[in-house]
Amino acid sequence: MSTDRLAKATAIHAARAWTVPMSLELLVIPVSDVDRSKIFYSSLGWRLDMDFIAEDGDYRVIQFTPPGSACSIMFGRNVTDALPGSLEGLHLIVSDIDTARDELLVRGIEVSEPFHDAGGIFHHAGGDALTTGPNPQRKSYASYASFRDPDGNGWVFQEVTARLTSDLEAGDPRFTSELVTALHSP
Known about the structure:
2,3-Dihydroxybiphenyl 1,2-Dioxygenase, domain 1; four-stranded mixed beta sheet; three-stranded mixed beta sheet
């Protein structure tokens, strides 16, 4: 199929609306020590939904849900073949980056200082273009802090104070100008 035909076919399929609603409700987290991970996620103050152990003991499923979230996490024994610690960029959306960060510190969890991306769109992988401190104007979607579970799975707090909408107008002061521009480009 030619590049032009592929682009046209992709655009046609993308324009079709889904008729069945979808929601992301579960993330499987690869861990090496199930009990250690259970203690860690419990120490975050997340709700323990399930701790199931099969009769033969070779299968175990633990599920936690962060406060206010419709999406839960699951880990255990023989739940995934993914390498422990291999997940990055698991975003937890918070309304106040400083308060969320302080909550982790009080619980004894190591968490980065707040940071923002100098480019204003999203944080770059590997720390490129990251600047210490929250976004100076506290624009929505622009401030972050990160932490890791005992296996090294990477979590990111992202401060969101106003939600993006399809009718976002140029110059909206709640968001970085770079983000607004990116949303309006073809």
